[in-house]
């Protein structure tokens, strides 16, 4: 569904007085809706632009986002941003799509003007390579959904991939400086995640991060019978519908994939999102002159009892690079893990437990390539044919690997598939032969016989399930508006978990279209977004405004948030756009307004 931006779709809390000589954003919207002309200091330039209107049209754009039952914060952000754009003279509509439809339109079909949503991010800044490198501008997935192409940025991304240590930090800073100038997307805020858990059933909730595998491993049972089942509640039904680790439409984060599949190396996080890359399926690795030598742990098996060997590892990396396995008219790469696999120039089997990776990167980025899920060749090798889905038009070159629901899933992870009912539950069982259960392996291990993922669509009812002892933890983060209503001080049975995250909310531009391909236009739009006000109002204070998409440890002082974005300061105050300043900024960027106060752009 879609709605035009206006009084009916914007938050009431945004009403305000004129700012810096401008008019209230709500007043601007009302005046625009009534067909009134709003006088501004740029009226002379408006008249001049009105004389010659040939070849230019009023700018109209659509913000694609999720509805309230998909992501309450995303739609609220979209409405506030739409109101700011309307105040600046841009006709703006909002199109709300379900989780799958949103990701399909943005990541696969690239069918959007701009969008508002949550980017999965990553603790390591190497994710920027696949997010922005022009090589991926026409591919599917989180690799460059913006269609952004800039050879200078490409060069800087390649430099940060090749660098190590302090040189890498300098190279990352160079990338961030270019992004602050180009603004292919606008980072808005990084939410503070909250989850409710039962402390009387399990201890150890703060030992791992609940958006990763480590949050569900190593828990200590506190009540008789609790070791039999860990009861989680999800507000997202997709884990009960699709278990394909390569599918971009059904995977936001890799929590379920983490539990079903193992990588060669895994980030082992604590609840504070501090993590270390640890050997997982790999027993050890060494990096020497561009070659990464990996030794697997002995006697590894998949859930179906088949042996996991170096052949499966070679297959995985080749398959992720081209799921058509060379049989198509062109490569059909996986829409997930693409950037990590691209760091590998070649992988060679030495013997059943030894491999050599020829890397195109420095050691830091090379090690990140070890974090992709290892797939069983005997399951996935038959999925390289062209996909056919009844009643759905599939893009040419799409393979079955990218469309299968992969139920039942067969991996080697700490839990294995047991059962599911669409939109009701997903049930996993402990994998008794998992590598972490070995006495000589010091890694967090599964401590329960069964992990049940119950589907419940709302935070309020998910909280009720935990309070009523029908669930042990809300695995998906709670919506921010409910956090203040949770009171755990009067009971020892419940605990409210707070954890930082590396994912972030952002506004993304489809730079394949005009005027979104113009960096000057994107810069001014970035200046219409009051990140600090949005973090307070939309997230009830449970978010941190950000100026860069990387975590704090990788953000240089010059680009760190300091009472505002140092690169694109907000043109207004307290969420209200200074309309005169906004229009002057657009005009200085080369755009013009007509006599009705509409921003006009040349059509092609």
TrEMBL record:
Domain annotation Solute-binding protein family: ranges: 277-598
GO biological process: peptide transport
InterPro entries: SBP_5, SBP_5_dom
Ribosomal protein found in the keyword field: no
Keywords from the named record: Signal, Transport
One Pfam match: SBP_bac_5
Transmembrane segments: none
Annotated segments matching region Disordered: 1-22
GO molecular function: peptide transmembrane transporter activity
Family: Belongs to the bacterial solute-binding protein 5 family.
PANTHER family for this protein: OLIGOPEPTIDE-BINDING PROTEIN APPA (PTHR30290:SF9), PERIPLASMIC BINDING COMPONENT OF ABC TRANSPORTER (PTHR30290)
Protein name: Family 5 extracellular solute-binding protein
Lineage: Archaea, Methanobacteriati, Methanobacteriota, Stenosarchaea group, Halobacteria
């Amino acid at each position: 569904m879609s709605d035009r931006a206006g009084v009916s779709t914007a938050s009431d809390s945004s009403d305000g007085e004129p700012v810096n000589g401008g008019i209230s954003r709500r007043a601007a919207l009302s005046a625009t809706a009534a067909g009134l002309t709003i006088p501004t200091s740029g009226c002379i330039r408006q008249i001049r632009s009105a004389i010659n209107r040939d070849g230019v049209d009023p700018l109209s754009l659509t913000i694609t986002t999720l509805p309230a039952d998909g992501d309450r914060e995303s739609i609220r952000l979209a409405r506030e941003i739409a109101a700011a754009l309307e105040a600046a003279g841009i006709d703006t509509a909002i199109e709300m799509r379900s989780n799958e439809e949103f990701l399909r339109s943005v990541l696969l079909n690239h069918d959007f003007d701009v969008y508002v949503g949550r980017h999965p991010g990553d603790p390591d800044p190497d994710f920027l390579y696949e997010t922005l490198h022009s090589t991926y501008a026409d591919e599917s997935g989180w690799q460059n959904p913006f269609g952004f192409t800039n050879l200078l940025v490409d060069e800087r991304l390649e430099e940060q991939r090749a660098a190590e240590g302090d040189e890498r930090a300098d190279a990352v800073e160079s990338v961030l400086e270019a992004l602050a100038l180009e603004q292919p997307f606008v980072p808005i805020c990084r939410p503070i995640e909250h989850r409710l858990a039962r402390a009387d059933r399990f201890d150890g909730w703060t030992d791992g991060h609940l958006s990763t595998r480590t949050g569900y491993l190593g828990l200590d049972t506190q009540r008789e019978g609790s070791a039999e089942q860990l009861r989680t509640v999800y507000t997202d039904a997709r884990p009960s519908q699709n278990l394909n680790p390569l599918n971009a439409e059904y995977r936001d984060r890799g929590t379920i994939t983490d539990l079903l599949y193992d990588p060669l190396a895994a980030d082992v996080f604590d609840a504070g999102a501090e993590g270390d890359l640890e050997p997982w399926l790999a027993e050890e690795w060494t990096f020497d002159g561009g070659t990464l030598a990996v030794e697997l742990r002995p006697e590894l098996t998949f859930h179906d009892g088949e042996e996991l060997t170096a052949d499966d590892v070679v297959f995985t990396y080749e398959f992720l690079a081209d799921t058509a396995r060379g049989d198509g008219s062109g490569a059909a790469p996986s829409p997930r893990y693409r950037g990590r696999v691209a760091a590998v120039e070649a992988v060679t089997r030495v013997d059943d437990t030894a491999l050599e990776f020829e890397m195109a990167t420095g050691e830091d980025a090379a090690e990140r390539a070890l974090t992709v899920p290892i797939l069983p060749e005997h399951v996935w090798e038959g999925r390289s044919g062209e996909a056919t889905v009844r009643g759905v038009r599939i893009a040419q070159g799409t393979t079955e690997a990218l469309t299968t629901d992969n139920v039942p899933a067969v991996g080697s992870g700490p839990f294995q598939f047991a059962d599911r009912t669409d939109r009701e539950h997903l049930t996993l069982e402990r994998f008794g032969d998992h590598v972490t259960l070995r006495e000589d392996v010091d890694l967090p291990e599964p401590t329960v016989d069964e992990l049940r993922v119950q589907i419940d669509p709302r935070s309020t009812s998910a909280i009720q399930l935990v309070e009523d002892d029908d669930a042990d933890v809300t695995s998906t983060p709670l919506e921010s508006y409910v956090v203040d209503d949770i009171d755990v001080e009067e009971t020892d049975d419940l605990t409210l978990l707070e954890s930082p995250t590396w994912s972030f909310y952002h506004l993304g531009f489809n730079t394949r279209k005009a005027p979104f391909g113009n960096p000057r236009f994107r810069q001014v739009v970035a200046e219409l977004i009051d990140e600090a006000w949005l973090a307070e109002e939309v997230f009830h204070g449970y978010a941190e405004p950000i100026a860069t998409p990387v975590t704090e440890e990788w953000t240089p002082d010059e680009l760190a948030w300091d009472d505002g974005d140092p690169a694109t300061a907000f043109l207004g105050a307290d969420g209200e756009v200074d309309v005169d300043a906004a229009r002057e900024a657009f005009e200085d960027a080369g755009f013009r307004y007509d006599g009705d106060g509409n921003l006009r752009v040349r059509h092609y």
